[in-house]
Write a structure and sequence with these properties.
By secondary structure, the protein is α/β, with parallel strands linked by helices. It contains two helices and eleven strands, in the order ααβββββββββββ.
Length: 134
């Protein structure tokens, strides 16, 4: 009886008799795969998506007809803006940012490395770094 995955693999590889167990492996060479098991991993995978390491799974590439309202346009520095975003004239979207459709960004606001959902309201004089707001 194996307690962990490491015990299982060691048991299979060390003992000649594998008792009917099989080990299957697929080595990913030109695709993206990740296991999100913690907030830190969620953040890491989100950054990969924003920086387009997961292409074609990126915000500006609609993958189904069910995403009619979720149209994003890619701008410089990996900034994705949804349809109907209101951005005050002196606010700044620095890099690696998604702004959902219908969201309003106030005056003198700076956002970087963040994901803002749809129909959110971000006030004046706000600084967001590494935020996930829905």
């Amino acid at each position: 009886d194996y307690q962990t995955r490491n015990d299982f693999v060691r048991g299979i590889l060390v003992h000649e008799e594998i008792m009917g167990n099989q080990v299957h492996v697929h080595v990913v060479t030109d695709e993206y795969a990740a296991r999100v098991s913690s907030p830190a991993m969620y953040n890491a995978v989100s950054k990969d998506v924003l920086q387009r390491w997961t292409y074609p799974l990126v915000p500006d590439n609609r993958l189904s007809s069910l995403e009619q309202d979720a149209i994003y346009i890619l701008h410089r520095h990996h900034v994705y803006r949804g349809k109907g975003v209101f951005l005050d004239h002196d606010s700044v979207l620095e890099e690696n940012v998604v702004i959902g459709p219908g969201t309003r960004i106030g005056s003198r606001t700076t956002i970087s490395n963040s994901v803002i959902g749809q129909n959110c309201v971000i006030g004046d004089n706000v600084q967001l770094e590494g935020a996930y707001l829905w």
